[in-house]
Amino acid sequence: MPPKAKAAGKGRAPAKRKLAEEFPPGEVLTDVGKKSWKLGAPIGQGGFGLIYLADENSAKPVGADARYVIKVEPSENGPLFSELKFYMRAAKPDLIQSWMRSHKLKNLGVPRYWGSGLHDKGGKKYRFMVIDRLGSDLQKKFEECGRRFSRKLVLQLGLRLLDILEYIHEHEYVHADIKASNLMLSHSDPNQVYLVDYGLAYRYSPDGVLKEYKEDPKRCHDGTIEFTSIDAHKGVVPCRRGDLEILSYCMVQWLCGRLPWEDKLQDPVYVRDSKIRSQENISEFMTKCFSSQEKPDEIQKFMQEVKALGYHDKPPYEKFRSILQAGLKAIQAKDDGKMEFTTINGAASPAQKAAKRKKVVDEADGTEETDSSPVKKKRVTKKKEVNGVKKSPKKSPKKAAKHKQINGKAKLVEMATQTSPGLAQRSRGRPKKSSA
Ligand SMILES: Nc1ncnc2c1ncn2[C@@H]1O[C@H](COP(=O)(O)OP(=O)(O)OP(=O)(O)O)[C@@H](O)[C@H]1O
Fold it and tell me: Which family does it belong to (predicted)?
């Protein structure tokens, strides 16, 4: 969350949060269904919890080929609690399986929920959740590919995300924080992509009742600033059209490397106004992002379709799919389900050229952005593989102000992004929920 958001919530006490202690490999946790799970090595660290490799409890130690991960947080912390609610309601394997069958899908990129519970250790209580173990995240892939994905890959990612979004929307939730760092490849199949991190997911229609449109200045700019929806910038609770809008910004960034507002992410009002202007004149926005030869017609159509959606509208998913399919056809490609991450050699997009020019000017007059800029906070941590487990270099702890809604109320949450050596961390400036 940008510094401005902190000011927006002044007067609120930061929520106190604790980071879970590290459990030794071999620790056994028993879930509410009385099933026992064994922890392996920790492989990741979120804002407040740790992620461990895990397997069903047996005499064997948990190896690098574990099929599950367990997320553990002190029980009083909120983020895992709200994420767990999503998983319990919408990610049970049977529910996903029957949706896939009825919608004739080969796969659906929502990690399966396998169990959860509370664990006592040393007089303290921890909440845990067992989900599918996944592989590399797409932000890492994006950086490896020189911050450009091929058009075919982007359109296929868009199609996979439409399937995922339709599923979660039909199960009363919106994600509200779609971005490459929240997309992970399957651990076993490099062609399957999963949407993760439901800490910000919002139940937009509990028991089928839609929330009313209401702008709340106290909750403006929730989400990840460069991608968040215009509704979120205005402080309206997220809805289905917002997810489609966020997806459109992601696709543009993946295609051309940079969104036009990326050089001013520390100014959320500027970002909001740029998005509003872009929506008012999509054709001009496209010209800013792409050269005339590279302009993808389907993205413009996709954005026009998003613009036409009302706050309560159910998106016409099939129409969105056919727009992306038409894009594949235009480049003589097919949705063959293969995710090919290749480096794109191409001229910089107009937005990239503008950013480069700005950098030269800023360097010349000494006004280059400082480390407090969200762009820099989102820098990807280079992770090393050690024994098949991701490791990240030690960083000094940074504090980030987070602003988001909890139980329908806006709360400012201050979080310490702590790092411990040996853990992959994905905290890239996304707001966290407090335990309030
Ligand atoms: N299902 C999974 N399988 C394998 N690794 C995972 C999985 N989920 C998360 N990780 C790893 O754990 C790291 C932290 O994930 P986690 O979801 O706890 O944090 P986060 O929610 O992304 O963090 P924050 O919310 O603070 O930004 C990820 O970078 C990834 O390396």
Answer: Belongs to the protein kinase superfamily.
